[in-house]
Amino acid sequence: MEQLWAPWRISYITKAAGGENEPCFICAVEASSNDRENLVVHRTTFSIVILNRFPYNNGHLLVAPRRHQGKFEELTAAELLDNLETVRRMVTCLQETMRPDGFNVGLNLGRSAGAGLPGHLHWHIVPRWVGDTNFMPVLGDVKVISQSLDSLWELLTRYLSGAAS
Predict the structure, then answer these.
(1) How far apart are CA 5 and CA 71, in angstroms?
(2) Which residues are marked as active site?
(3) pLDDT given for residue 74 in this prediction
(4) Architecture of 22-160 per CATH?
(5) Which of 23, 107, 121, 151 makes the best surface tag, with the fewest CB within 10 Å?
(6) In the chain, where the domains are located
(7) HSE (side-chain half, CA atoms, 13 Å) at 45
(8) Where does residue 123 rank: exposed (0-12), middle (13-18), buried (19+ CB within 10 A)?
């Protein structure tokens, strides 16, 4: 049997489920100025875009309000519009740089709906390719991610800065 080496997953596996008092990782990233280390791809007035450290698929992004809010109704109209415009811009960015065949775009509202961080709204953008589901998840309970987060960060930030062709 072959082994897949994914040492970056250990922090996710060993992390406690976390309660309501656990610090918000989005707020911690927002407060930091080290975008590369924190995998921040883009910031706008009201939103932040972060590479998911534990992606469902290559290119998995999180788009979140910069202000800590856990409910839709807590967002101002300007925050909501900015975040949705940012989701649209990131879908375009991923289309241009990675050429997926489609996307899953979603927002989980509340822990019972699947929100791993129910206190801070965030949209998931997951690129999908025809044939990206194969035998690995079915037989091995393993998902293969084909690109490093560092390489993906470089690609997306270069595109967003206008340097990509």
Answers:
(1) 38
(2) 122
(3) 92
(4) 2-Layer Sandwich (3.30)
(5) 23
(6) 22-160
(7) 8
(8) buried
Over the stretch 11-44, which tens digit does the pLDDT of each residue have? 554 554 445 556 799 999 999 999 999 999 999 9
For 19, left (φ over 0), alpha (ψ -120 to 50), or beta? Answer: beta
CB atoms within 10 A of CB 149: 16
Single-letter code of the amino acid located at 18: G
Instruction: Decide: 120 and 64 in contact? Cβ < 8 Å.
Output: yes
Give me the helices (H) in the chain, please: 10-14, 25-31, 77-98, 135, 149-160
pTM of the model: 0.77
Percentage of the chain with pLDDT > 90? 55
> pLDDT tens-digit profile of 115-130?
778 889 999 999 998 8
- Going across the sheet that includes 47-51, the strands are 40-43, 47-51, 61-65, 123-128, 102-107
Going 31 to 81 to 40 to 14, the CA torsion angle's sign is: positive
